## 1
Amino acid sequence: MDRLFDRFAGGFGLPAFRRLFDFEPPWRGDSSFSFTAPAVDVTEDAKGFTITAELPSLEEKNVDVNVSGDMLTIKGEKRYEKDESDKHRYMSERAYGSFQRSFALPDGVDRDKIAANLSKGVLTVTLPKTAQAQKQQKIKVKTAA
């Protein structure tokens, strides 16, 4: 499937999205937890990249965002809080456990200015581009005589 997307994107002169942000799929890792890795959106604009992850019911203290080398890692844990006073529960479908998502940082990200914000169950990680990466140069196209 990756080759299909690479071939499709490459045919139009576009960088293959998978190579821009190489990531660790959420289904890899320890399967002993029922809490799955969050869904993420990765966007780019002229000033930088943004990673948005859905982390419902997680608090700031249960989320870690780290940069090590060329990898950005988002880790989190949802803990089970036992309530002994509830004697009438017959089933619980809420999941608990931990997750980890890792992303290879593209060239041109200013690592010193990476920021993370958790608000209303949504984690937003901003990865600003360096001034050099934001600069575009127009190349004049000449015709052969």
Note: Helices lie at 2-10, 17-20, 131-134.
## 2
Amino acid sequence: MTDTGLPNRPETPRAGSLGERGGKSAGVPHGSDPGSRGRTTIADGVVAKIAGMAARDVPGVHSMGGGFARGMGAMRERMPGAGGKSVTSGVKVEVGDVQTAVDLEIVVEYGVSIIEVAGDVRENVIAAIERMTGLEVVEVNIAVGDVHLFDEEDEQPERRLE
């Protein structure tokens, strides 16, 4: 989990300082930003979900994850009550206090420019994470694990008629 913001310690005035200055309420500096009063924590899973959704939104990305992860995801989709597709399949993150790094494994559609798709994924993931969390994304590493051919889904093992 990541902490962003300042520690959750209210500033307390020194004894007698409010009376001398005629200040407002105790413990709250006049004109301080309400956003700096407390701590916000962002779980690693939140950053992974944002990265996964942003990567899937890019045209040319067929799916996420390696062969094993995709196989497990396909089994999960078929099982009732198992929750369907995992948004974080193929996504690993390292989250620090103010920075994060992302590793993605993607499957691209056949015929697209892998370099362009990877660049678009990188831009979309960085923009989404930085906008939604305020964390600085220091790197997005992309591994292209496969190319999806359009007829792959149509191929079924032939059944013998007996």
Note: The radius of gyration is 24 Å.
## 3
Amino acid sequence: MLEAFGLAGWREAGLFVVAVLLLNATPGVDLLLTVTRTLAGGARAGLAAALGIELGCVVHALAAAFGLAALMALTPSAFSVLTWAGAAYLLWLAWGMARSAWRPDPVGQRRVAPPQRLRKEVRTGFLTNVLNPKVALFFLAFIPQFIAPAAPHKTLAFLLLGAWFVLQSAVFLAVLVALASQARRLQPLPAVGRALNAAGAGLFGALAVRFVNA
């Protein structure tokens, strides 16, 4: 069974699970977006953003499995364009959160997430992830380390490990949404929500700058 995933044994499977968990728990754009969207719009908004993030991971996994990420890594101009596009999108998110910090939410907005807003959260999560070229390069560099050299079908093994990564990450983000949703109940005051939006705007702005300077 493990050979189908390209893993040599249970030890490698355990290492893969731990490595993915540590990567998920490392503060970054995906983690911060999931938390901020949950605190701003509740569990449904957080789960919608997490769904978009995982859809972006699927795109990156497929691109890495079929060599698109490797091609991008060898083409500096393509990497640069995607990097600047990702940074610009983060700045746009930061601007939106800064605007929300300076105006009160309409009554009930924090409690009910209409379908169109959930679709927007999915789109936000997807674009934030898929416009990050470093995620693509991460898939290209990380997953092959766990594929056994003797694996008969390495592309299939890559796809299976990529699916494993996406599923485990989805579980992690769902737990994160549950925890952030509980924390949200402890801060019902509008002023606190505005402060969180201001902090989120600062974080995403800093990440955008780091994005292009790393």
Note: Confidence is low (pLDDT under 50) at residues 106-112.
## 4
Amino acid sequence: MKNLTLRQLRAFEAAASTLSFSRAAEQLHLTQPAVSMQIRLLEDELGQPLFHKQGRGLQLSDAGQELLRHARHILGVIRQAEESLSSLQQGGTRGQLHLGVVPTANYFAPLLMMAFRERFPEVKLKLSVDRRDTILAMLNDHRIDVAIAGYPPSEADVEAEAFARHPHCIVAAPDHPLVGQRGIAWEALRAEPFIFREPGSATRGFLEHLLQAQSLQVNVTMELSGNETIKQAVMAGMGISFMSAHAFQIERAAGRMAVLDLVDMPKLLDWCLLHRRESVLSGVNAAFREFVLEQGAALTQCEVGPG
């Protein structure tokens, strides 16, 4: 692969990520023929196809899947080097911060990023929001360098540094009979209509663990996907639910949702800053890590009291 170029790798990575030459061209601000030509040159250099036609779309070949893994790593290292050199040359922190977060962290991530840019005005911001497994895959593939989530699985090859607490509460509509009561026992929830998150949700897994510890089986009347859908159902009086406190701050302040004063609640997890174990953060990513560990706890505080 003596004649492989960065231009070819960038065209291939964009096309492989979107499975579309036209969308890759839009991302790279090139024409579609220019992207097609770069990939054709790359395939000629490698001596094997990187894509197969699948209906009207594209599918990566085995060679394409293998090259994509290496291309993302190479481009990630080059991006880090460019940002570090740019910071040195300009005498400050510059470049792009591409942060990946799980959906619940999206309730405070923009505030965190804007506070960071107030300190470093030259930084460009990009935010990707997705499920934890997707965010971890983006880290592994060098598509992002830093992320915010809870503690990752033990097998994930990432460093996790806790920077803030993550409270969870039982919530209800403001006119629910249990609202206003103090020291509610878990047993009082047995017959209540309960709205659960979808299977596979980390929030659902946390709740199931708590219910098991209480030897309590509740009346699950509905399963819904996503915090926004569950909030609407709770506010409509369809049942109670277990939620991250970050997700309902606006509704609580507006009096449209209430927190039940359950014994030993709220339950706390940790928010963590994640990055690849083998990578040394530099430039804007290193500055963001330092900022989050220093200021993150204060910027992610939320109200969790009953009512």
Note: The chain has a mean pLDDT of 90.
